[in-house]
Automatic annotation (TrEMBL):
It comes from the Bacteria. Residues 166-299 form the BioF2-like acetyltransferase domain. It comes from Sphingobium lactosutens DS20. Pfam families: Acetyltransf_6. Gene3D superfamilies: 3.40.630.30. The lineage of its organism: Bacteria, Pseudomonadati, Pseudomonadota, Alphaproteobacteria, Sphingomonadales. This is CelD-like protein.
């Protein structure tokens, strides 16, 4: 097996890929190189990057990490990330995957004291590999994602199964078509200005530093690829609600939604959601809709499944300073 290599910039990663610049292109959105690169550039520009790469046979494993403090490592992820995971190229089998992850774990243990990874859909493979590499590991459920699997249903069939309170709300608030609802698959400067204006009048907290630039970068890339779905509710020509979705491998991803706080009583966001779901199901014919991380109560009315998200903390036994944190994490995992 090829010994793990480490890169500290995306320019170095791209040089390492050489004649394979599109090696990540078929991956899901959150595993693609352009997603990782944009996330680091806009949201973590001041945090050192550590990218691990290992190869075995025709398979490869990549792990994108941040180094926020000396001997501390974290996933290159934040709340824009629906999931985090090692990225595998070349379809390695389970034994090869584990061997490459273990090799990367040993490499990281040589100069690292603690590794924290979140949000993981499944921590078993990583936990096993890091354990074999000599780390103490703790997995804890720290949140969830809400999903809707369509199983061939059209929108009308899906909608009949929604809670009565939601269906009644849409029927009452939609009388007389109080809002013009439009869904775009191409981004323009004017549409982005409308998006920012609604966000500024929303109850949503302000975006973190670099957040709006990151979202615009995402919207522009997905617009070019034809995968953007940017929805607006307008009243008298003024945008009062907006939602940013993308379509990825047949899955509709709901990234951001916002509406003008002053119009809460008229529910423009709910009416826009109704239109967005209909478009995704009947026109894009997605197989699944993913509402992203967070357990906001309203999501349960629209979705039918919740999957847990896991945090994996790994501690280097040689780093005595980490023993108290390891003990606290283990106790937390035991008591839930």
């Amino acid at each position: 097996m090829q010994a793990p290599r480490e890169y500290h910039s995306f320019a170095d990663v791209r040089r390492a890929l050489g004649h394979r610049p599109g090696a990540f292109d078929d991956a899901r959105l959150f595993d693609r190189l352009d997603w990782m690169e944009s996330l680091h550039r806009h949201c973590f520009a001041d945090v050192p990057l550590r990218v691990l790469h290992a190869g075995q046979g025709h398979g490869e494993a990549w792990l994108f990490l941040l180094a926020p403090a000396r001997r501390r490592l974290e996933a290159l992820a934040n709340y824009y990330s629906f999931a985090f995971a090692p990225v595998f190229v070349g379809a390695p089998d389970p034994a090869a995957r584990c061997a490459m992850l273990e090799a990367m774990g040993r490499h990281l243990r040589s100069n690292g004291a603690r590794l924290s990874l979140y949000p993981l859909e499944d921590c078993a493979e990583l936990r096993d590999a890091l354990g074999r590499a000599g780390w103490w590991t703790v997995c804890r459920t720290m949140g969830g994602r809400h999903l809707l699997t369509l199983d061939g249903r059209n929108f009308d069939t899906y909608w009949r199964a929604r809670p009565g309170r939601l269906r009644n709300l849409v029927r009452r608030k939609g009388r007389g078509d109080p809002f013009a609802l439009t869904i775009y698959d191409r981004l323009t400067p004017d549409l982005w200005d409308d998006y920012v204006a609604v966000q500024a009048r929303s109850w949503k907290a302000d975006e973190p530093a670099g957040g709006l630039a990151f979202l615009r970068d995402l919207a522009e890339r997905e617009s070019t690829a034809g995968r953007l779905r940017l929805g607006f509710a307008r009243q008298g020509g003024r945008a009062v609600a907006t939602q940013l979705w993308t379509i990825d491998h047949g899955v509709a991803l709901i990234h951001k939604l916002a509406h003008d706080e002053a119009l809460d009583a008229q529910s423009p966001g709910t009416l826009l959601s109704h239109a967005m779901f209909r478009h995704a199901i009947d026109q894009d014919r997605v197989t699944m809709i993913d509402y992203g991380t967070g357990d906001n109560g309203y999501k349960a009315d629209w979705m039918e499944q919740r999957i847990p998200l896991t945090r994996l903390d790994a501690f280097n036994p040689r780093a005595v300073s980490q023993w108290p944190a390891a003990a606290r994490a283990m106790i937390s995992a035991l008591v839930g």
